[in-house]
Amino acid sequence: VNAVPPVGGMLVKKVGRTTGLTSGQILGVSATSFGLPYKSTHFSSTVYFQNVWAVVTLTGEPFSAPGDSGSLVVTEDGTAAVGLIFAGGDNVSYIIPIEAVLGEWQAVLVGGHGT
Questions:
Q1: Which secondary structure element, helix H or strand E, spans residue 102, and what is its range?
Q2: Contact 62/50 with Cβ under 8 angstroms?
Q3: Model pTM?
Q4: What tens digit of pLDDT does each residue of 89-109 get?
Q5: Which is it for the CA torsion 61, 64, 67, 71, positive or negative?
Q6: Which residues contact 92 (CB under 8 A, 6 or more apart)?
Q7: Burial bucket for residue 70 (CB in 10 Å: 0-12, 13-18, 19+)
Q8: pLDDT in tens, 23-80
Q9: Most Cβ neighbours (<10 Å): which of 30, 50, 70, 94?
Q10: Can you tell me the distance from the alpha carbon of 91 to that of 7, in angstroms, rounded to the nearest whole number?
């Protein structure tokens, strides 16, 4: 299975638990650190991420919704992984590039399941 870096203008799709199959377009990378409020039973804070990419649909509908976090975003033709959904709101979804995720976890993509 291929992994490719996100690129502004790239057409992508994903299947999420909440929204099912949606298609969208990558707008670009955040120029600054991306802050996300985080709350747990023991503390609350803002967690900052780098190398965050914004994705929108061309229809104006949300690309993702709560419950879709962790969904794999792939190229429009489905031949390569691009990133993982980790946040969204106001009709913009945010992904972390799959290459960064794989590198952090020292993981590889596998394919051929269910074929």
A1: helix 98-105
A2: no
A3: 0.90
A4: 778 999 999 999 999 999 999
A5: positive
A6: 27, 54, 55, 56, 63
A7: exposed
A8: 999 999 998 999 989 899 999 999 999 999 999 999 989 999 999 999 999 999 999 9
A9: 94
A10: 19
